[in-house]
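Inverse folding, one chain.
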């Protein structure tokens, strides 16, 4: 409800997100999703939402309340049920696939199904990439053939970074 949304925003505004970093950042407030979307729009950036569960209708409401282009919001989605819900409420927004990898890497329908629902990126961990470089290169090529891009996350190995 609208009243509970206001209550949640008030709670967020009470938090100090910067105190732990240094005194320079004291009193840094957490932006609401609407504020973060507006900042993404202002600075020609994209807002990646790594949220494990979400309410697609609430995301659509925040997007509508903001001044942001729908492409600015990129949630991570882990199932096609979630993708369908998101697409219903946010038909002009893309998203990032963060679910299971294909059982058959050559199955173009696996990629096409996600891309048809708005998937723009497939996200892999650095472990998945370097565990089997041949698999990764084929996955990359198939994603690109289907007009999608790849994202890597959690590079914790210094040898890989350098």
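Residues assigned per position:
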């Amino acid at each position: 409800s609208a009243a509970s949304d206001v209550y949640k925003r008030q709670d967020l505004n009470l938090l100090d997100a910067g105190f732990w970093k240094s005194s320079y950042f004291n009193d840094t407030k957490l932006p609401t999703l609407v504020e973060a979307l507006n900042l993404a729009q202002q600075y020609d950036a994209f807002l990646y939402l790594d949220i494990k569960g979400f309410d697609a209708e609430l995301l659509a409401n925040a997007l509508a309340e903001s001044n942001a282009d729908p492409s600015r919001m990129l949630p991570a989605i882990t199932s096609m049920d979630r993708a369908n819900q998101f697409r219903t409420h946010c038909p002009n927004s893309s998203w990032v696939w963060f679910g299971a990898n294909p059982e058959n890497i050559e199955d173009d329908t696996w990629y096409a199904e996600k891309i048809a629902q708005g998937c723009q990126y497939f996200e892999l961990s650095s472990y998945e990439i370097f565990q089997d470089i041949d698999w990764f290169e084929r996955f990359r090529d198939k994603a690109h053939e289907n007009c999608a891009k790849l994202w890597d996350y959690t590079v914790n190995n210094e040898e890989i970074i350098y």
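The longest strand covers residues 119-125. The chain has eight helices and five strands.
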